[in-house]
UniProtKB/TrEMBL annotation:
Swiss-Prot/TrEMBL ANK repeat ranges: 55-77, 90-119
One Pfam match: Ank
PROSITE patterns: ANK_REP_REGION, ANK_REPEAT
Name recorded for this polypeptide: Ankyrin
Length: 119
């Protein structure tokens, strides 16, 4: 049985974790499960904001880019998973990613969660 900690720390050749793929694919139940299990395994809800893929994307960047509003809201519920204004290696925040892809509802959600328009 693979621990969630190992799954969260295991990266593929693009530097992505299971949470990256769950967020990118819009798999809300998997995102929730990974967050819950990580909390249980770790004893706290401390998820490193340094878990970036090779493009510097965090799971929130991917949820925003692909328009998965429920996934983004789930990630934004937890202070430790928020990271709303962190830019990737291309200097894009989750707000930039959503706007570039034309996801106006995602832009609204991010702005409702105080995403900065000046970063």
């Amino acid at each position: 049985h693979v621990s969630v900690r190992n799954m969260m720390n295991t990266v593929d050749e693009q530097g992505s974790t299971a949470l990256h793929y769950a967020a990118q694919g819009g798999f809300l139940k998997n995102v929730s499960l990974l967050q819950q299990r990580w909390t249980r395994d770790r004893g706290s809800n401390k998820y490193s904001n340094r878990v970036r893929n090779h493009n510097g994307d965090l799971p929130l960047h991917l949820a925003a880019r692909y328009g998965w509003i429920d996934v983004a809201k789930k990630l934004l519920q937890s202070r430790d998973f928020r990271q709303i204004d962190i830019a990737n290696d291309h200097e894009k925040t989750p707000l930039h990613c959503a706007a570039e892809e034309g996801h106006s509802n995602m832009v609204a959600v991010l702005l409702d969660h105080q995403a900065s328009v000046t970063k």
